[in-house]
Automatic annotation (TrEMBL):
GO terms for biological process: negative regulation of DNA-templated transcription. Keywords: DNA-binding, Transcription, Transcription regulation. Residues 37-56 bind DNA. Residues 14-74 form the HTH tetR-type domain. This is TetR/AcrR family transcriptional repressor of mexJK operon. GO terms for molecular function: DNA-binding transcription factor activity; transcription cis-regulatory region binding. It comes from Streptosporangium becharense. InterPro entries: Homeodomain-like_sf (IPR009057), HTH-type_TetR-like_transc_reg (IPR050109), HTH_TetR (IPR001647), TetR_C_Proteobacteria (IPR039536).
Amino acid sequence: MTEATQKPVRQGQAHKRAAILAAARELFVQAGVERTSMDAVAARAEVSKRTVYDYYGDKRRLLLGVIEDAGEAALGTLRRLVEQHLSDAVAVIDAAELERVMTDFAADLGSSLLVSSDYAAAVKLIAENEPLLPELEDHPLDEAHTQALAERFEHLASIGLLDVDDPRLAADHFHALTTLRVLNEPLRRRAEAEHVRRIMTDGAHAFMRAYASRSNSRE
């Protein structure tokens, strides 16, 4: 993480940091960043205003902290689901079986991540405040999200289940066909679990049509 995005956190005070971020997230979404005061954040978090400033310095960096916190949680969810569905321990013998695994992975990613209120809040805050946050461009968290998928796609290509020349590009395509499609939906539709599931699984099928190894198909 770059120096600009590093934030001092007092040893043993992680619970205060979590309380501040939760309070800020709620208030930023409810009232908007501009209309939210640091006093209000401190009051809701039940800490002093000085503590908020000691941790984050100013409101812009607090906003960045809220978004990075959601991004780190999302990365943890992605890695957990990759391990659950796409690890070496999962027995996949051909492209047809891999398609089933990929659609299950996409469905779980949608239900675990995209319907998360914290993730939805971060997406909303980014859309409304992106000019305030130049640190988000080429952020290390974006790279980590891409890499988590790219590593597995590279492995699946190495054992003949995917036709992938550029694993990072394949990861970007999977993201575009699934997560980005959901995020481009109206907010009310993103709250509908079955609608999200359908988009995610349709995207996984489209990805497999593009990348499944023909030599390992049952057809």
